[in-house]
Design brief:
The complex is a heterodimer of chains A (344) and B (131). Chain A has 14 helices and eight strands. Chain A is an alpha/beta fold and 344 residues long. Chain A has one domain: TIM Barrel, CATH 3.20.20.70. In chain A, strands 6-5-4-3-2-1-7-8 form an eight-stranded mixed sheet. In chain A, helix 3 runs parallel beside helix 4. In chain B, 66% of the residues lie in helices and 3% in strands. In chain B, strand 1 and strand 2 form a beta hairpin. The chains are: A alpha/beta (344), B mainly alpha (131). At the A-B interface, helix 8 of A face helix 4 of B.
Chain lengths: 344, 131
């Protein structure tokens, strides 16, 4: 499967995706659910995570990707924009810098962002697809991450090859295990090493994730017993009806049912704790968003908040009103979903 | 033989085929209307729902194990609503098609075994009647 972009699929356009998302049968508009729950207008409660998406280039083309990332994408953060990011970060005491993509490690500015963020004393997390660690051009990447004590947050949708490969491509499971062993050998995931290795579970299809604690136990048992792999924690993330996962939903006839499932599982407690309330998302070109999902739908920060990193102003961003749309049901369903796992 | 079977089958379909459109006894959308049974008797529905929720909660068996059992039972009683609901539930509890297939085989083995073990009755009766 190639990217939507390379196939000139109409869903490559954010406007087309928003048009589709505006009309799911049987779902009240998300803003209406927020009002009913007494949460409107939804506003930020400070910024604890400075999330930087350094671009859409990736060595994989996962079926569920909301970024539509892939090897053909050329949207990559420039050094100038990366420097604007570190300049903005230095004005704040935001504790965590979360670097994502695509495969963020492939962006030339990735290591600069890690090094500068660590110099500023911030905790750095790397959203890693694991297979990137095995690329010949990235032979020193794992050691670089360990040296800078970067927390690795690695995607592994299941502990078996059939499911993982169905979502992420043939052979990805086997490569992921090799990469996990490489990280374990450096101390990642081991008690007392200080090197955090967390896994992210995404459902391989149009259904909600299981209880986080329960699936973490399954993963721990299976990965340790069958593959001699250890990790710290596992987070579950709900698949968002954006980009390639939206394409899958539409092509498989699951779109209406999935949106109804998300809407019926709306959890006000999860909505109150959604990650957009404490995260600021920076796009590859420096545009500001409330979250990575809004970024992919080209919905920048609104309601008078600054919209580019060059105009970064913590005072105008820390309590900003959040831009929402029907895809937000993905983060508020069940126990809720965020880049850090369940919410409620 | 096959032509005769098709004619018989065609006759039995006549009540179902009318106006060129195919009706069906089961509609997937009806699963979503299950709670409407409460309109017939709210008290009994509430009691059933309370019991049902308690049965499927985490206990000595996990929610996942119970969902797999329910999937097996759904196949044993051949309830398409339950098969639909518990296929999704098993996936949402972290199970997979391999485990779920084994659960279906458990149902098959029990149903088949239940028939087969009654063969002991047959043998008892045959043994009594036979010289």
């Amino acid at each position: 499967m190639g990217t939507l972009n390379s196939r000139a699929n109409p869903l490559a356009s954010a406007a087309e995706q928003l048009r589709v998302l505006s009309t799911p049968d049987g779902c009240a508009p998300f803003e209406e659910r927020l009002r009913t729950a007494g949460l409107a207008p939804l506003c930020a409660t400070g910024i604890r995570v400075f999330q930087v998406n350094v671009g859409k280039l990736c060595n994989q083309t996962c079926a569920h990707c909301h970024v539509d990332a892939g090897p053909d994408r050329r949207e990559i953060m420039s050094q100038e924009t990366a420097e604007q990011c570190t300049h903005a970060l230095a004005q704040t005491d935001i504790p965590t810098v979360d670097i994502t993509g695509g495969a963020p490690e492939l962006a030339p500015c990735f290591r600069y962002l890690v090094e500068e963020s660590k110099k500023l004393g911030r905790h750095v997390t790397d959203r890693c697809n694991l297979t990137v660690l095995l690329l010949p051009s990235q032979a020193d990447l794992a050691e670089f991450l360990a040296r800078h004590e970067v927390e690795v947050i690695a995607s592994l949708p299941y502990y078996r090859a059939a499911q993982t490969d169905a979502q992420r491509g043939e052979g990805v499971f086997e490569k992921s295990i090799r990469a996990l062993r490489l990280l374990n050998d450096l101390g990642y995931g081991k008690q007392g090493s200080g090197l955090k290795l967390n896994l992210v579970y995404n459902p391989v299809g149009a259904f909600l994730p299981p209880k986080q604690e329960a699936i973490e136990k399954q993963f721990r048992r299976e990965l340790e017993q069958k593959h001699n792999v250890v990790f710290n924690h596992l987070c579950t993330m709900t698949n968002m009806p954006i980009s390639r996962f939206l394409e899958f939903l539409l092509n498989s006839g699951n779109y209406e049912g999935y949106m109804q499932r998300l809407a019926n599982a709306f959890n006000a407690a999860a909505a109150a704790g959604v990650m957009c309330r404490y995260t600021l998302s920076v796009g590859w070109d420096g545009t500001l968003y409330d979250c990575d999902f809004n970024q992919m739908l080209e919905l920048p920060t609104g309601y008078g908040a600054p919209q580019h990193i060059r105009d970064f102003d913590p005072a105008r961003l820390h309590a900003r009103e959040i831009v929402t749309n029907n895809h937000c049901y993905g983060c508020t369903a069940g126990d809720g979903s965020s880049c850090g796992g369940t919410i409620a | 033989m096959l032509i005769r079977f098709a004619e018989l089958f065609q006759d039995s379909l006549k009540p179902v085929l009318h106006g060129g459109a195919m009706d069906t006894y089961y509609h997937p959308a009806d699963l979503g209307k299950f709670a409407e049974m409460g309109k017939g008797n709210e008290e009994l529905w509430d009691k059933f729902l309370g019991y049902y929720s308690a049965v499927f909660a985490d206990g000595a068996l996990s929610e996942r194990e119970k969902a797999l059992i329910a999937l097996g039972v759904a196949h044993a009683v051949q309830c398409p609503y339950c098969i639909d609901a518990y296929t999704q539930a098993c996936l949402e509890k972290g199970s997979n098609v391999e485990e779920m297939t084994e659960a279906v085989h458990v149902a098959c083995a029990i149903r088949g075994g239940a028939s087969l073990v009654h063969g002991v009755q047959m043998r008892n009766v045959a043994g009594k009647l036979s010289m």
